[in-house]
Design goal:
alpha+beta, WSC_carb-bd, elongated, five-stranded antiparallel β-sheet, 8 helices
Length: 439
């Protein structure tokens, strides 16, 4: 037991608890409050019943959720935060529709500060009291205190030596509560562009032209995965993503000449359309000492053990030309480019002889790789991937009315381009590319 908790008989009223708003309860790190009160019937749930159950257990935190769930806890779980929209706690209590009992993954939270402990289990109390007759004097040491609750009990006992003399003993109990500190952490989104069912990985930061161009390469190499995975009608916005990547490449060429340039400067003028950063708030007793952390910087090895920045996404497979259907280099059917086949950016895989890679996934570790003698097969796979995108995005968008072109004509153009692509890349040469490690 923790001896610094007040005696249960001193806590007889749920008015000890005060509401502190609507809090999130959807963290991957665990629940906001750990102890669910399964002894309470969900169909009869009210805030009063939940608070009484938590009070009986001596828990300083209590909360209702989803209309009929009750949770108690000693601390607030990691990853829990005050909800940005109070109205998300919108479910009436099952036992009293005039009350609100949280919502889906939202907790109507209450705290009883007088129940919060200052010491770990087994530690001596951090207060001492000295009493000499009347009036009494109280001395407190330890944390700087917030509100102090004092309970005085007096007993009178007659002595046997003198019937007219009484002895009065005054007992003073002092409970102190440590100040509560709050820490807020802003976590950048790992989805820089959200298009349909697809999210892009954020491009790396940069502060010079070389690193800026590397970020532009990584941006463009993710374009194929957008068309393959976004789904309709979202995939039609993949063209906007590619335009953003082209704008990034242009920024690197024109703004990073002999001067400092960074990602923030580009984002300010050309913001992406992704998910916003998330904010995490946690509460804890304020510390009395300051901890200093020393960060050690190590020098990376000459070659990465995992991967390196992707190579320049120019590709070494050939986009076919057909005057009848009007496609050619820089003008593919439906605007869907031939996926890039170039040097493998995974050091271990390249070292094992797979020097080429077809970039069809935003995570290059999931992309197929090829040894030098299978280079034509890589281009054939690229032709097939382009055909699948052409059919699933361009032809289907015509069929569903997102485009004004005939579905039959669009499908015929996709098929013709695929056959021509296989023909022109059947005897394609690698011309000595990728024989040295690009990093």
């Amino acid at each position: 037991m923790d001896p610094t908790f007040p005696s249960p008989e001193d806590q007889t009223d749920i008015s000890e608890y005060a509401p502190v708003g609507c809090w999130t309860d959807d963290s991957s790190q665990g629940r906001a409050l750990f102890y669910r009160q399964d002894n309470l019937a969900s169909s009869e749930m009210t805030n009063e019943k939940c608070l009484k159950s938590c009070l009986d257990g001596g828990f300083p935190f209590a909360g209702t959720e989803y209309g009929g769930e009750c949770y108690c806890g000693v601390v607030i779980g990691n990853g829990t935060a005050l909800a940005t929209d109070e109205s998300t706690c919108n479910m009436p209590c099952n036992g009293d529709s005039s009350q609100t009992c949280g919502g889906p993954a939202r907790l109507s939270l209450y705290v009883a500060k007088d129940l919060q402990s200052l010491e770990p289990c087994g530690s001596p109390s951090n207060t001492s009291s000295t009493t000499t007759g009347y009036p009494t004097t109280t001395t407190t040491k330890g944390y700087p205190t917030s509100p102090t609750k004092t309970t005085t009990k007096s007993t009178t006992k007659a002595t046997t030596s003198s019937p007219s003399t009484t002895k009065t003993t005054t007992k003073v109990t002092t409970t102190t509560t440590a100040p509560v500190c709050t820490a807020t952490t802003v976590i950048p989104s790992d989805c820089e562009w959200k298009i349909g069912k697809w999210c892009s990985d954020p491009v790396p930061d940069w502060d010079d032209k070389k690193d800026c161009l590397i970020s532009g390469s990584k941006c463009l190499l993710q374009g194929t995965s957008c068309f393959l995975k976004a789904g309709l009608p979202g995939a039609l916005s993949c063209f906007k993503y590619k335009e953003w990547c082209v704008a990034l490449d242009l920024y690197c060429v024109t703004k990073c000449i002999g001067k400092y340039c960074d990602k923030a400067g580009f984002i300010e003028k050309s913001p992406p359309y992704g998910l916003p950063p998330t904010t995490s708030t946690s509460t804890y007793p304020c510390p009395t000492t300051v901890t200093t952390t020393t960060k050690t910087t190590t020098t990376p090895p000459p070659y990465p053990t995992d991967d390196c920045p992707p190579p320049n996404p120019t590709g070494i497979c050939i986009q076919p030309t057909n005057k009848w259907f009007g496609y050619g280099p820089g003008k593919p059917v439906g605007g869907i480019e031939l996926p890039v086949v170039t040097c493998n950016n995974i050091w271990g895989d390249w070292k094992n002889g797979n020097i080429f890679k077809l970039y069809t996934d935003k995570d290059s570790k999931k992309c197929p790789s090829y040894p030098v003698y299978q280079f034509p097969n890589a281009c054939a796979d690229a032709c097939k991937s382009q055909y699948e995108q052409c059919e699933d995005v361009y032809a289907e968008s015509c069929k569903m009315g997102y485009k004004t072109y005939s579905y039959k004509d669009a499908e015929a153009a996709c098929e013709a381009q695929y056959k021509d692509c296989l023909t022109v890349n059947k005897w394609v040469k690698d011309n000595g590319h990728c024989t040295t490690w690009d990093c």
